[in-house]
Amino acid sequence: MNYELDKRWGILYCPKKGIRTDRKRWSKIRQALDACNVQYDFVQSESSDSVERLMRMLINNGYKTIVIVGGDSALNDAVNCMMEVDSTVREEIALGVIPNGVMNDFARYWDFKESEIQQTVEWLVKHRVRKVDLGCIHYVKESGEASSRYFLNCVNIGLIADIMNQRRQARSLLGSRTLAFFASIVTMAFHRWDYKMRLRIGYDVIERRVMTVCVGSGPGYGQTPNAVPYNGMLDVSVVYQPQLKQLFAGLWLLITGRFLNHKSVHPFRTREMQVTEAGHARVGIDGRLLGKLDGPYSFSVEMEAINFLIPA
User: Fold this and answer.
1) Do strands 204-210 and 212-216 pair parallel, antiparallel, or not at all (unpaired)?
2) Which is nearest to 102 in space by CA: 47, 164, 23?
């Protein structure tokens, strides 16, 4: 093994789609790295497909510290690439993040803030490692091939997956988180609000019309606020269809971090979950749309799967 690569970081930079100020942001990140005397090699992605390709390249070239400059979707691509390699290889790699995405929920959970670049780099340099769990969704592709996808944060089924997808698209067009959020809320009036679902969550069986489900290994964009990525469990929030007045009250509770207080929200904690029917609801994973899944699918937990760099 090349000794230099044991000390040298591999940095995968994922620019924000549609944002013109990214060159200035990378300049600030580079200054913070130089100020901390970090030795690194830098690659830049052009798309989600290139994130996976470049991540595999960094792994195959022997980098022991890989830092993603990106958001939840980029981290999702990174951990799925890491789960493709042998566990003995993965055990030697530490994954870090400098938040730079449309959604940075997993980074915020660890108190990495997009505005505090220097502080983030200083924490990463201290190389404090925490083993974190990954959730996993097991499903069947349209081709009939069995497949799976890991997630650090959450999987959304139903209305929230639609809203998150619209918000991401609106953010690319409008360039503003606030405008994108309100634009996605407005479009709710034109979307289907509930789906006939049959869920088995541990020993509990739910068979009724459901508006949205969030399965969280992490905070789930406020929908699984008590989830932690190191207890070997998944938090699940099942939201029955509320009345219109209750819906807006629920959105306010979501924004203010009190989502589980809404009477239409039913929380669970489990190691595994099966979805045998979901009315062809859309599924989003770590902020990216996976699509409409046909047939049953299930969830499990991979405990202590990834070495993640956390604040020191």
Assistant:
1) unpaired
2) 164
Report the pLDDT value the prediction gives residue 144, as an integer from 0 to 100: 83
Q: Would you call 154 helix, strand, or coil by DSSP? A: strand
The C-alpha atoms of residue 215 and residue 273 are separated, in whole angstroms, by: 9
Q: What is the C-alpha to C-alpha distance for residues 106 and 288, in angstroms, rounded to an integer? A: 14
* C-alpha–C-alpha distance, residues 150 and 268, integer Å: 20
pLDDT averaged per 10 residues, the chain (length 312) = 69 76 84 96 85 95 96 95 96 96 89 95 97 97 89 90 66 55 58 82 93 91 90 94 53 54 82 92 89 88 97 92
| pLDDT the model gives residue 243 | 54
Sign of the torsion angle spanned by Cα atoms 63, 25, 54, 301: positive
Is the Cα dihedral 241, 246, 249, 253 positive or negative? negative
DSSP-assigned letter for residue 30:
H
Calpha distance 200→135 (Å, rounded): 16
The sign one gets for the Cα dihedral 220, 223, 225, 228 is negative
CA distances to 56, 62, 260 from 1, rounded to whole Å, are 17, 7, 49
- Residues 275-289 have pLDDT tens digits of 999 888 889 999 888
What tokens does 264 get? 């239409």
**Nearest one of 231, 286, 302 to 106, comparing CA atoms:** 286
Q: What is the pLDDT of residue 239?
A: 87
Q: Is 192 exposed, middle or buried (0-12, 13-18, 19+ CB in 10 A)?
A: middle
As a whole number of Å, the CA-based R_g of the chain is 19
How far apart, in whole angstroms, are the C-alpha atoms of residue 113 and residue 273?
32
